[in-house]
Amino acid sequence: MNTHNGITGLFRNMNMKNKLLIVFFLIGLLPILFFALIFYRDSTKAFEVELSKYTVEIAKQVGERLDSFVQEMERVGNIVRFDPDVQTILHDSQDPTEPALVYSIRSTRDLFDNIGNLRSHLKGIFLITDSGLLVYNGAGEVAKRNYSFEQDDWYWQIKQKELFHLNPVHPQTYLKDEPVVTFSARLMDNREFRTKGTLLFDFSPKIIREMSETIQLGSTGYVFMMTEDGRYVIPTEQSLSWLQEDNRLQFFQGKTSGHFQMKIDGQMMLVGFYTSSQTGWKIVGVVPFSELATEMQSIRVGIVLVGLAAIIVIFILSTALSRMITRPLKDLEQNMRVVEKGDFNVSLTLRSHDEIGRLSNQFNRMVAELNRMKDEVYMAEVREYRHQLLRKNSEMKALQAQINPHFLYNTLNVIVCIAEVYDVDDIVSVSQALSHMFKYSISGSSITTMEEEIDHLNAYLSIVQVRFPNKFTVRVHVDPELLPNKILKLICQPIVENSVTHAFQGREGIGEISIAVRNEGGDIVFRFEDNGIGIDEYRLREIHAQLQEDEPNFLDPNEHIGLVNVRLRLQMYYREKFSMNIWSRINEGTCVEMRIAGGIDTVQYVGRG
User: Fold this and answer.
1) How does the UniProt record describe the way this protein sits in the membrane (predicted)?
2) End-to-end distance of the chain based on CA atoms, in angstroms?
3) What predicted TM-score, i.e. pTM, was given to this entire model?
4) Which residues contact 311 (CB under 8 A, 6 or more apart)?
């Protein structure tokens, strides 16, 4: 039920063009697919029968080659069996020193040489008497001395078979450690009418492999031989583990030939087999069904081509019709996307007066109304932004006007006192310094150079040194390369004034104030330090809280107006590039650090934009 609802919802939400395409596809393709599947099924069955016969015939050809080889070796074996010298060896093998036996052994070896010269892949002929005498022709190789054949299982199996027999591959451990296929027979002493020895013809496995190598079953098909119990006759590169799965050997047992299909490693295979009449071995051909079914592939390709042609025709027809119906809707959709991006200068051309035409007309009216509303909203935003600029400008001017009136008052008192009591030139220097400070403060621009800011600070310090003689010393250090840099005006003097005013109240001795401006890792860092009375933790937390306020109260007598003023102005101009930190301990002093990120070349006036 959920699946049905999902499909219905998918079709319902699909655009009209795709719906039309699907309908035409179903109408056009379903009949074609129906008849194509019926034709393909019937032709597949016919080809399966023919291909199965072909695979069995291939296996039969290999089996006939194998039978011919066995029959030929039986004739050769009979020549050896009835040879007089071989009979002498079987009868007199108990006494190896007998002259007649020695002569027979030499003659038998000559016979073995003659037989070996006429047959390729022959690795040796061996005559083993039951008394342990070995006569052989090892193709130039020397057999191991005193080798006991009785220790090998394959040899015991050969001794159990009286007739000629072709045996599966086994190691030739008595001559060379290499695999061989052995044609064997038990030999009878015709004088005593009982078996006294075993005859072995050892061949390279290639002689068996070559019987099937010329057979081509597709590009990946192969032929192999196996015994009744499913063992290899000779090793192959293919894995035959599938024979042991699901008792598949039962398909071969009790049958001379046959064919069937099965999945091997996930692929459908055609298996045909034939049983050798001479050895009882099964010659099995295995080939992927798809590789042999060339005619079936042609039919399949034909069906696919017809289907593709039908799809193309249906696609052309359905596309033409759907485009005719959906083109106005597509135009409407594209224009709506333009409107979504904020562009209201669009309109649709009316091509008809049907439902789509009326919808296009309504769209044009809607866009015109949105364009009018956009203009109204834009003008309202401009007015609001202008008000914000004026408010910010007023706040900026108010902040710049926060110069400590006590400082001006006390400075003027100093000038008066000096003039009345001492009558010295200090009046001139103090007056000049105060004039420089006033001139610097009232200049129109809020931006200055680092050099001018430090000059203003030095003017202030020359005044307070006269006001508070021998109360503290001041060290000022500025990296020379920073002097031409642009910087916000009046940021150093208010912080130093805090130190002068608060740091040394009630302290004995001469204090120290250090001002440093450096380039640290690409940032400009201002550091103001004193060794004054410090600030307790509670008051330090209050100062930190005040510095975090967006709109501090400058009328609050507890506010640190200088610090707050500087922090707020720098924050407004440099924004996230600016940071301020304060550290202090009682009786150890206070440090104020300001950092402007960006470096010598990039730290310029950021402004409000």
Assistant:
1) Multi-pass membrane protein
2) 59
3) 0.43
4) 25, 29
